[in-house]
Amino acid sequence: MDTIVAIATGPGAGGIGIVRLSGEQAFQIGATLFKGKQSFSSMSANVLFHGTVVKAGEALDEAMFVKMRAPKSFTKEDVLEIHCHGGRVALGQILDLVCSLGARLAEPGEFTRRAFLNGRIDLSQAEAVIDLINAKTAEGAHTALKQLEGRLSEQVGLAKKELITIIAHLEASVDYPEYEIEALTVERLSHGIEAASTIVAALLHGYDRGRLLREGVTVAITGRPNVGKSSLLNRLAGRQRAIVTEIPGTTRDIIDEYIDLNGIPVRIVDTAGIRETQEPIEKIGVDLALKEVADADLVVVLLDAESGILPEERERIATLQLVKKTLVVFNKIDKETERHQDDTILRVSLLEDTGVEKLIEALGNLVAGAFDGTAGTALQGDVLVTNARHKQLLDQCQQSLANARAALSSGVPLDCLSVDLMAAVGSLAEITGDSVSESIVNEIFSRFCIGK
Question: Considering the entire predicted model, what is its pTM?
Answer without folding.
Answer: 0.77
